[in-house]
Design brief:
Shape: elongated
Number of strands: 23
Strand content: 15-25%
């Protein structure tokens, strides 16, 4: 359908499904939350219109006419906040050029308005196009039931609710400069098992998405049919095709082609929407029409993009259902939020209600492992933009970081889980050792001590009666420059303690030398110092510690 306007031509294509009020496949933050309070009819209608997908193409279309076209096609009232735009120096006739398909109308609006540094809000029965400053002055108050997410004692008739950790996580990762605790306009208060939140419409969407994701983690923990917890990236569910495309191979040869045209070609070839952040590039002094050269053969798209964009000091992220080409500064200013279940990494097997609710979890050690190894300068504790906060009800990390760092965090957690399994197997093998099994072990004595017989006498005298018994097969005696003992794990611990107290044996000092001599001066190991005392003595292949 074509629309002709004075002084310009606007090509508009808007394809919407008949069932606009229902979309069964929606990402977190793109649909109504089952635990949120009911919305009024007009809010439901506008939310459904924003969640639906459409195909849009505008060419030099005046902003006010674009708003009229959106209103007509979505069947909702769209108000252009003329006074706010004029105060901001934006003409309602500003031409809009934007072509996009396969994304929700919400994402289209955000991307279109971003070029003008505008936003939208839902109020007074309509969708308002306005400035960020006006949106901040028109905060919306919403109540979110969160009792199931903050309850700390499930057995108590009087619920013990920990609002603080969940509220802190929300304020740390979602628009951290926009809350009253740091001088911003937003407020969050816990009362009656709920959060009363006063914030902009855009921030409310993220708060709702975070609560939905965390509730899914809590529910998964309680579902015995769920064998493995799943992490969540807010707003990424609808963008799985883009994540998949990044791993697909790209074969292309580009010679002196404008960046805009090159990205358009790549998007068509990989069947994903790619949008260039024109405003950010211009602010950074980069012309989107700058020609680029590249040649790739069967190269994963993520590597090809890195190499093409690196030369221009650009990067990409996935947001608003598109692959977004922009500057590193913009990526750091608009971090992605992820939730990572970590119960298996911060505590052992649940042994009490407190363990089950994560009250005894060791979050600090894992946080240090993450923040010290993954882009250490990027975390808020050292002045960076990223944040990581623990949630206790179902032990989870809420993280705001760049897409690249989120990928590194996921990889690190996978490796730590593998390492923990290896350690658990090692400990289990130790526990399988018969504590009564007799083991022969030698203890090299420092050369300056030549009275081995006196040392042996001290050991026997200091041991509990009956410790050394020829009939039981236990003994201790001097041999060369070593003390040789045959006993079980408990007996050897007594020998080690006494020799250390006498200052005649230091495991760390003599370990290397004794191994070369085959005497085993440290913890026993197979083939070195874990020598079987006799057939049937029950020696563990790995010795003991």
């Amino acid at each position: 359908m074509y629309f002709r306007f004075q002084g310009s031509v606007c090509l508009l294509v808007a394809c919407l499904t008949a069932g606009i009020a229902c979309d069964s496949q929606h990402a977190f933050g793109e649909g109504p939350a089952t635990h949120e309070l009911p919305q009024v009819e007009w809010e439901v209608r506008i939310e459904a219109a924003l969640r639906a997908k459409g195909e849009w193409e505008f060419v030099d279309a005046p902003l006010n006419e674009v708003c009229s076209a959106i209103q007509e096609k979505l069947g909702i009232e769209v108000v252009l906040d003329v006074k706010a735009l004029e105060d901001f120096g934006i003409d309602t006739g500003t031409p809009i050029t934007r072509s996009l398909r396969g994304v929700s109308n919400r994402s289209f609006l955000r991307l279109m308005l971003r070029d003008l540094e505008l936003t939208y809000m839902v109020r007074l029965g309509a969708l308002w196009i306005t400035t960020p400053e006006r949106a901040e002055a028109q905060l919306v108050t919403t109540v979110y039931p969160v009792g199931d997410l903050v309850e700390q004692d499930l057995n108590s008739r009087e619920p013990v609710l920990d609002y603080d950790s969940l509220a802190q996580a929300i304020m740390s990762v979602i628009a951290p400069d926009e809350w009253d605790q740091v001088g911003g306009p937003g407020v969050i208060n816990g009362i009656y098992g709920s959060f009363a939140v006063s914030q902009t419409a855009e921030i409310h969407e993220e708060v709702s998405a975070l609560l939905q994701a965390y509730r899914a983690i809590v529910d998964n923990e309680q579902d015995t049919n769920v064998s493995r917890q799943t992490s969540f990236m807010l707003g990424q569910k609808a963008q799985k095709s883009i994540h998949a495309a990044l791993d697909r191979a790209l074969t292309v040869e580009i010679e002196d082609v404008a960046l805009t045209q090159a990205m358009e070609f790549v998007g068509q070839a990989m069947n994903i929407p790619i949008v260039i952040d024109t405003r950010a590039l211009e602010d950074f002094g980069i012309d989107p029409a700058t020609p680029i050269n590249a040649k790739f053969k069967e190269t994963p798209l993520r590597f090809a993009l890195d190499r093409m964009l690196n030369e221009m000091e650009l990067t990409y992220t996935i947001r608003d259902e598109v692959l977004f080409i922009t500057t590193p500064e913009v990526v750091e200013a608009q971090l992605l939020i992820g939730l990572y279940p970590v119960r298996d990494l911060v505590q052992g097997t649940a042994a009490s209600p407190g363990d089950r609710l994560g009250m005894n979890a060791d979050f600090d050690s894992l946080i240090r492992a993450i923040t010290s190894t993954i882009d250490p300068d990027s975390w808020d504790e050292v002045g960076g933009p990223g944040a990581i906060e623990p949630l206790v009800r179902a032990p989870t990390f809420v993280v705001s970081q760049t897409q690249e760092n989120h990928e590194k965090i996921a990889e690190l957690l996978t490796k730590l889980r593998a390492a923990k399994k290896v350690e658990a197997a090692r400990v289990a093998a130790k526990e399988d050792v018969d504590p009564t099994a007799l083991i022969v072990r030698s203890y090299p004595i420092h050369p300056m001590f030549n009275g081995l017989d006196e040392i042996v006498k001290l050991i026997m005298r200091a041991s509990e009666p009956g410790t050394w018994d020829d009939e039981a097969g236990t003994f201790v005696q001097g041999l060369g420059m070593s003390i040789v003992a045959k006993h079980n794990a408990s007996g050897h611990r007594q020998v080690e303690k006494l020799l250390s107290q006498l200052g005649v044996w230091y495991p760390s000092r003599f370990n290397a030398r004794s191994r070369k001599q085959g005497l085993g001066g440290g913890p026993p190991q197979a083939g070195v110092d874990a020598q079987p005392a006799a057939p049937g003595a029950g020696v563990s292949p790995g010795g003991f510690f």
